[in-house]
From TrEMBL:
Keywords: ATP-binding, Coiled coil, Leucine-rich repeat, Membrane, Nucleotide-binding, Plant defense, Repeat. It holds the Pfam family WHD_DRP. It is a peripheral membrane protein. It is found in: Membrane. Coiled coil: none annotated. Residues 68-235 form the NB-ARC domain. This is Uncharacterized protein. GO terms for cellular component: membrane. Residues 315-385 form the Disease resistance protein winged helix domain.
Length: 728
């Protein structure tokens, strides 16, 4: 058969499958799906992100033995079998099932092979509707605010696509039976990958491929991993080698236990007697007891200020990735982070997290382009330990904690037994994240009356009705507030004088001089933040007060005119490090003129991250931005260049730039290329070009080649055109 005939046959099969699926789903979809009002802003996920980029927990980073298992799973995922298949990874707790699944899931070839990918942690009790919504969110984003029947909406969006769905730690056959109704067995080579401790359940879920039983790692591999964790790449001294191999054997082939013990030994005295004590502690307990014993030992070695930081993380849902930027703000708000010398609190909190990572109590799951941690998780065993410790130490009972955290339904029932946590309804200081346990505002707002000491309130996943402002009046101890509302006026929160972080997603935002009452603000993250007063006041933003916000580090997204961009304004925020700016009008500034923006005298000199959108820039403007001495990240979106056909970079510019992103500049005939002089920026690590002209993308590749010719192989370049999609 000719190649053309084969293509026609395959196309015919695809169309046939698609038509069959439409006939099945269309009546229900029309009835069940309700899309959000187009005028509403897009909801931003609170802390859980689909793992759409490479994620390498420490287990699979260093365990060479996983390579063979990963290859075996890869073969199963990429087999030529056309219909849907289920790949089960089976093994006991701590053996590395999740780490192996993540390793394969994040392979570039897997990312390229499947049109749709989603990862969900299931856990002990499965609320299937919420799992459907989470998978749907990862596939389609947050555009669906209210879907009556997410199962059918999910089936519709998977129809005709090759997908990979990971269900981590599934425990019940009943949950599986409901979940699989969404996964049509059309011939698209789609796959479902599951991890489970239950061999019988794995056999029950089998469709074609047999379950993959993950074995314990061999003794020599155990020692290799332990040596890496303790000595960080150096060789073990001869006098410790024999006792070291004994310790590794006591771990009985459990990677997680080896990693925990490695963290302990790395901080203990390096002598044989000390290591023998550790070996005895492991050998005198069952595997489960030994694991908890080692976590307890690691916990005991923590400085006092790190212990509440770790316990705080134990309240997150099982398996969820926590956004590091949010976590650090919560720690600061709860006053877990100590003041150390001249260090900023953000620096100290990052140091705390790095310490927990180095002790293998926390795992980095995503990193940013500059190498910083983006997301982290705590492994299941550490989380179980934390929950036990929370009860023992009555962590939730102390007045000084005032926690508002994310929990899942399995924990909600536990917290209803107030005695176990020492919490009474009358003095409630804990609120479950609404994504998991609060269905509407009627349940939430009365609950807030008992949360007057609360410091952290993160409700970005939960739309609040117009009565939210009245409900928040008594929460005067708030340090962190993130909300999703229709209308927001700054005066409604101006009484929260301790507020450090303000995050708002809203359709209509109003600002007034009450803004200056929030003198302790460190981070302002509002989807569009107008730098002009509401109520028709004529006084300029910066002229209404002499107050200077010395603590402010992050400001965005500011919507302002060029006429408002004055040095006097930016002097109100002398320590600003991150700025997102949308210049929405030019006022009296002549068309194609960059006015004062060209001089950039008003921009704070300490800026590390700058994002500009929807404005005109001339060559001199970019050159001036390049002179910001601390700038590491520059993002330009929907920018219109009005100067020559290239930028003119001189020497001594972009001293620290690591990330350059250009988006939607294709229509600009004045920008034909990124100047090749960017190859002279030694710190540059990533250029990302999205929906720009081909010549701009080609110039980015030329810069990469020039840097490689000079011996710098650290630059990555990504260039892609906008991909249109049609949603029925």
């Amino acid at each position: 058969m000719s190649q053309k005939s084969c293509m026609q046959k395959r196309l015919g099969e695809d169309v046939s499958n698609l038509i069959s699926g439409v006939k099945i789903l269309l009546p229900t979809i029309v009835k069940g799906a309700k899309l959000a009002d187009e005028k509403e802003v897009e909801r931003i996920p609170a802390f859980a992100e689909p793992p759409t980029e490479l994620s390498y927990p420490s287990v699979d980073e260093e365990l060479v033995a996983f390579d063979d298992h990963a290859k075996n799973i890869f073969v199963k995922l990429t087999s030529r079998r056309k219909d849907l298949d289920v790949i089960s990874i089976v093994g006991m707790a701590g053996i590395g099932k999740t780490a192996l699944a993540r390793k394969v899931y994040s392979e570039v070839s897997i990312i390229d092979r499947f049109e749709v990918r989603a990862w969900c942690s299931v856990g002990q009790i499965c609320n299937v509707r919420k799992l459907f919504l989470e998978i749907l969110r990862q596939i389609m984003g947050d555009r669906y605010l209210n879907v009556d029947d997410p199962a059918y909406m999910l089936r519709w969006n998977l129809l005709g696509k090759r997908y990979l769905i990971v269900l981590d730690d599934i425990c019940e056959s009943e949950s599986w039976d409901v979940l699989t109704r969404c996964f049509l067995s059309v011939e698209r080579r789609s796959r479902i990958m599951v991890t489970t401790r239950n061999a019988e359940l794995a056999q029950y879920m089998t469709q074609h491929s047999d379950p993959y039983f993950l074995p314990f790692i061999r003794y020599e591999e155990s020692w290799e991993l332990l040596e890496k964790k303790v000595f960080q790449g150096e060789s073990c001294p001869l006098e410790l080698r024999s006792v070291g191999t004994l310790v590794s054997k006591k771990c009985k082939g459990l990677p997680y236990l080896i990693i925990m013990i490695g963290g302990i030994l790395s901080r203990k005295k390096r002598d044989a007697s000390t290591w023998l004590e550790v070996a005895y502690d492991i050998g005198s307990h069952t595997l489960e007891e030994g694991s908890m014993k080692m976590i307890q030992s690691s916990y005991d070695l923590l400085p006092d200020y790190l212990k509440p930081c770790l316990l705080y993380m134990g309240l997150f849902p099982k398996g969820y990735e926590i956004r590091v930027s949010d976590l650090l703000k919560w720690w600061i708000a709860e006053e877990f982070v100590p003041n150390i010398g001249t260090l900023e609190l953000e620096e100290t909190s990052m140091s705390c997290l790095s310490d927990l990572v180095s002790r293998n109590m926390v795992v980095v799951s995503k990193t940013r382009v500059n190498g910083e941690m983006k997301c982290c998780i705590i492994l299941d065993q550490v989380r179980e330990f934390c929950l036990t410790k929370i009860k023992e130490e009555k962590f939730m009972q102390h007045v000084g904690k005032r926690l508002c955290m994310y929990i899942q339904d399995t924990m909600t029932s536990d917290f209803k037994e107030r005695e176990s946590f020492g919490i009474s309804q009358a003095s409630l200081e804990f609120i479950a994240h609404p994504k998991f346990s609060i269905s509407d505002n009627k349940n939430l707002f009365p609950l807030l009356n008992n949360l007057r000491l609360i410091r952290v309130l993160h409700l970005l996943d939960f739309y609040l009705d117009d009565s939210w402002a009245a409900a928040f009046q008594l929460l005067t101890h708030l340090r962190y507030l993130a909300i999703f509302v229709k209308v927001f006026h700054i005066k409604w929160v101006s009484h929260l004088v301790h507020l450090q972080t303000l995050g708002v997603r809203s359709s209509y935002i109003m600002i007034s001089p009450a803004f200056w009452k929030l003198e302790k603000l460190r981070h302002v993250d509002i989807n569009e933040f107008p730098i002009r007063w509401a109520d028709g006041e004529l006084v300029k933003f910066e002229e209404s007060t002499d107050i200077v916000l010395h603590n402010l580090k992050t400001l965005g997204t500011c919507s302002m005119s060029v006429a408002d961009m004055t040095p006097k304004f930016w002097n109100k925020f002398p320590n600003l490090e991150q700025l997102r700016l949308h210049i929405d009008e030019f006022g009296d500034v002549p068309y194609y003129s960059d006015s004062r923006l060209m001089t950039l005298e008003m921009f704070p000199t300490r800026l590390r991250k700058l994002s500009l959108s929807e404005t005109f820039l001339m060559d001199e403007t970019v050159s001036s931005i390049a002179k910001l001495q601390h700038l590491e990240t520059l993002k330009l979106s929907e920018i219109y260049f009005t100067g020559e056909k290239h930028w003119d970079l001189s020497d001594n510019t972009f001293k620290r730039l690591k990330f350059l992103k250009l988006h939607l500049i294709k229509s600009c005939s004045k920008l034909e290329e990124i100047p090749l002089s960017f190859a002279d920026v030694p710190t540059l690590r990533l250029i990302k070009v999205t929906d720009c002209s081909k010549s701009v993308g080609d110039s980015a590749l030329s810069i990469k080649q020039d840097m490689e010719d000079l011996g710098n192989v650290h630059l990555d370049v990504t260039s892609e055109q906008y991909k249109y999609s049609f949603d029925l």
